[in-house]
Design a protein that fits this description.
Blueprint (H helix, E strand, L loop, with lengths): L8 H5 L38 E6 L14 H10 L4 E3 L5 E3 L2 E6 L5 E6 L12 H14 L5 H6 L5 H6 L10 E5 L2 E5 L7 H4 L10 H5 L19 E5 L6 E6 L13 E6 L3 H9 L5 E4 L2 H7 L8 E14 L6 H4 L4 H9 L3 H9 L4 E2 L33 H15 L4 E8 L4 H17 L3 E8 L1 H9 L5 E6 L7 H4 L16 H11 L7 H17 L3 E13 L3 E2 L2 E2 L6 E2 L4 E2 L2
Parallel strand pairs: 1-10, 14-15, 14-16
Antiparallel strand pairs: 2-3, 4-5, 5-7, 6-7, 8-9, 9-10, 11-17, 12-16, 12-17, 13-17, 18-21, 19-20
């Protein structure tokens, strides 16, 4: 099962060999609660059953449309309000949600979901047709997460629709046999398919409601968004710094939901987050950098500090096209290898991130994907690629000399973009990378350009950048959630790298002969990762932890490193 991510700070730092998740069980952010002495919430009277909690977000929620949302904070709010066929339990395993019963064919390629009685917040029953409509729409519009329909879930017909080769969405292998019966056909067995169902991409949308709205209106306000989950959206404007959800009295499992609601507040600064928590305006806050040390040294705060695995990995990606990077200079493997070996990852986490994050030297980060055969973390061995990656200045200089000879140049100037609203440590990390690369590789100038996360993503997707400081969180607990990014022409292959051997390995692991041979598939995924590392397609940096300050009256927040980082359905507030 998924690891319990409620680590102490010390145990997270020391748990690089800990089994994180089993492939078969898991799928990659008003009135307060508690009194002043609790370190969060307005007063003791509010700290009773049915209270609301105040929760920090790092970034603005730009969309609640499951075809447009691309970040953990948006997914968290969507999952507050909408149930899928399954949901996560405390350990991250898939358990029934809207699907009351799940039947699987002997060959593992046909799933029949029997739906329970549930309704949307406008009183309309939830039916199998809601899933058919939503999934066809995802494939037809081919948003960033449409790849999960074809490349990951392997739903019959999805690949042709997503690519645009097939215009008829009725060819998708999803059928409403009747209002209560959803049948899904796959091209190949997918052992973790039920876990995919709790990811927002696979959530339903009521077609009649959706089509009653104007173009682009869905999910932009409480009036244009329907809930069938534990909470309903009560206050939201895209891009603003606050939003709120309240308990859904008509939720099918409402008797097990204690919270009256959740008030979200975007706080981009760790300093401001700590101040807000200490002044009782936040019940759950995330801090980093010096604020973690400050909290650890504070007698009142140290017992409220809980470090949990955030799951996602920060890394540097390089545009390898002639459109950027001095006419495509970063297509040179030795130049990329020089840069990745000039970065001191341990210094980054010790001196700038400072929240329990782990320096990372693999393309698949540690602590989220474990072998179903052995239970061992896929990336437990962080030295497996030491031939290609590590902090080794002499090796970096040797790679750089080779690159200069091959390219016929002695100096290079690149611009690295980064998000200036993704946490205050991000700019510090960007500055540190600049100093390390320029200091260790004389001849490289790395200029920095800060921008919003949305702008950074746009530039990466449009191939309008040289180097980018970015991150990826696991959507499901299998190495493919990372390795799938570097398939030729994948929408998340921001470096536009292409390797025929790599594509062949991944195809064998997803739709080919290795699908039914678990151990052979696992070994082949290491072969694929080796190609990514020896080619320095990316420069992994660190696997993120979240240093959470939590009001001790707030109990039962479930933290996960995969898919949905925080789940509040079982959260309570003690009196």
């Amino acid at each position: 099962m998924l690891m319990n991510t409620n680590f102490t700070r010390r145990s997270f730092l020391g748990a690089t060999g800990t089994s994180a998740a089993a492939l078969f069980l898991a799928a990659c952010g008003g009135s307060g609660s508690g009194g002043e002495a609790a370190g969060g919430g307005a007063d003791a009277a509010a700290a009773a059953a049915g209270a609301s909690i105040n929760v920090m977000l790092y970034t603005n929620v730009m969309s609640l449309d499951t075809n447009l949302a691309t970040d953990g904070d948006s997914f968290e709010v969507i999952a507050d309000c909408i149930d899928g066929l399954t949901q996560m339990d405390a350990d991250g395993a898939a358990i029934p949600a809207l699907a009351e019963k799940i039947d699987v064919s002997d060959d593992g390629k046909t799933y029949t979901f029997t739906l329970r009685d549930a309704k949307w917040s406008n009183g309309t029953p939830v039916t199998a047709k809601d899933f058919v409509f939503a999934w066809r729409r995802i494939c037809q519009e081919a948003g960033e997460y449409a790849y999960m329909m074809d490349e990951i879930a392997n739903i019959k017909g999805a690949a042709a629709i997503v690519s645009g080769d097939e215009k008829d969405t009725t060819t998708l292998g999803v059928t409403a046999k009747d209002d209560k019966t959803l049948v899904v056909e796959l091209d190949v067995p997918v052992p973790f398919f039920e876990s995919l169902m709790y990811f927002p991409t696979f959530y339903p949308i009521n077609e009649e409601f959706y089509t009653s709205l104007g173009d682009g209106a869905y999910g932009t306000s409480p009036e244009t968004f329907l809930s069938n989950g534990a909470f309903v959206l009560s206050n939201y404007t895209p891009g603003t710094a606050s939003l709120s959800v309240t308990k859904n009295p008509d939720y099918w499992d409402a008797q097990n939901v204690s919270l009256a609601g959740i008030n979200y507040q975007v706080v981009g600064s760790s300093d401001n987050a700590l101040t807000a928590f200490k002044s009782n305006s936040l019940d759950i806050a995330m801090i980093s950098g010096n604020q973690v040390a400050s909290a650890e040294g504070d007698a009142d705060l140290k017992d409220k500090l809980e470090v949990t695995g955030a799951g996602y990995m920060w890394y540097v990606t390089f545009s390898q096209t002639e459109k950027n990077a001095e006419g495509g200079m970063l297509a040179n493997k030795n130049l990329r290898l020089a840069i990745t070996n000039a970065i001191d990852r341990q210094a980054l986490v010790d001196n700038y991130v400072m929240d329990g994050s782990l320096p990372t030297y693999t393309a698949v980060p540690p602590q989220f994907a474990a072998s179903a055969s052995t239970g061992e973390d896929f990336s437990a061995d962080q030295k497996m690629f030491s031939e290609f990656i590590g902090y080794d200045v002499e090796k970096a200089k040797k790679y750089f000399e080779d690159a200069k000879k091959e390219l016929g140049k002695d100096s290079f100037t690149f611009t690295m973009i980064y998000g200036n609203n993704e946490g205050d440590e991000v700019e510090k990390v960007a500055q540190a990378i600049k100093e390390q690369v320029e200091g260790n590789l004389s001849g490289i100038t790395l200029n920095l350009q800060g921008m919003t996360k949305a702008e950074r993503l746009d530039k990466m997707q449009e191939d309008n950048y040289d180097v980018a400081l970015t991150r990826w969180g696991p959507d499901y607990a299998d190495p493919m959630t990372y390795l799938g990014m570097w398939i030729t022409n994948n929408s998340n292959n921001y470096g536009f790298w292409s390797n025929e051997e790599y594509d062949k390995i991944i195809a064998e692991c997803t739709t080919g002969k290795l699908v039914s041979d678990y151990d052979a598939r696992w070994a082949a995924l290491y072969d694929a990762e080796t190609l990514v590392m020896q080619e320095a397609v990316i420069a992994p940096l660190y696997t993120k932890a979240n240093a959470n300050l939590i009001n001790p009256r707030v109990k039962g927040v479930e933290f996960h490193p995969v898919a949905l980082n925080r789940v509040y359905k079982n959260t309570t507030v003690e009196a």
